[in-house]
Amino acid sequence: MTEEDNCWIIVTGGQKGGTGKTTIATNLATLFAAMGWKVLLVNADNQRSLVTWNDQRAELGRETVEGQGKDFHELTLVSQFGKNLHKDVKKLTPQYDVAIIDAGGFDSTEFRSALLVADVLVSPINASSFDTWTLSQVHEIIEGAKINNPDLKAGLILNRVNASSVSEAKAALRAIVEDEEDPLESFFLYKKAIVNRNAYSRAPALGLTVHEMPRPDAKAKEEMVALQQEILEIFTAASEEAA
Ligand SMILES: Nc1ncnc2c1ncn2[C@@H]1O[C@H](COP(=O)(O)OP(=O)(O)OP(=O)(O)O)[C@@H](O)[C@H]1O
Ligand SMILES: [Mg+2]
Prior knowledge:
By secondary structure, the protein is of the alpha/beta class. Helix content is 44%, strand content 17%. It has a seven-stranded parallel β-sheet with strand order 3-2-4-1-5-6-7, sandwiched between helices. It starts with 7 loop residues before the first strand and ends with a helix. Magnesium ion (MG) is lined by residues 21-22, 45, 47, 49, 102.
């Protein structure tokens, strides 16, 4: 963020294959839009699930939301690929309040590039399959990105956790990150863990997010709002540091 460019940049990425990157990107995007922020969504993953979601949103989502008498929040979606993604995104950000980049797995050029301009990384990880090798690879990439982008805040968030085992999952992840022999010091852990709930898999079929659904799942909504709140606190702390 600079004086001319007040746009915050969030990246969802890191872990491979179905951990919840796109789910978190879309839910955060609509929550920021609901606050009146101008939101840029960047699809940087060639699986294009964000593009499919956005197409559904323009048709089914708009009808559903407006049919309930709710506001339909406009988002802008662009696709950007390649090693210059960070430069291409920075050309667009002066027109937005927040940009959310849905990047691919840790070994993608897009993920590495996005981290060069990110304020915050949200890296979802599934409790059922901690992959410590991948975690240390992602950590290495973050340490590399921090050479050029020292203020990057890189957080891991548990996703699809069983409601009855949230504390165990948190403790297991904390033990890996704080391992005495090989601590992953560049990661912090988001306080909120996201539980495995049908609401998260139902909403994308309509191009919506959990809080926009006709009968929103209150717990899912609360989780996403809590995650957004943690991110807003990071923004506030960063602004105060810069002042
Ligand atoms: N907390 C959750 N509860 C239930 N289902 C979830 C949850 N989070 C994600 N899902 C579902 O899991 C699947 C994978 O999620 P998503 O597409 O967000 O992951 P991804 O990391 O973007 O995947 P990819 O690596 O393929 O891009 C989707 O069907 C999504 O609806
Ligand atoms: Mg995805």
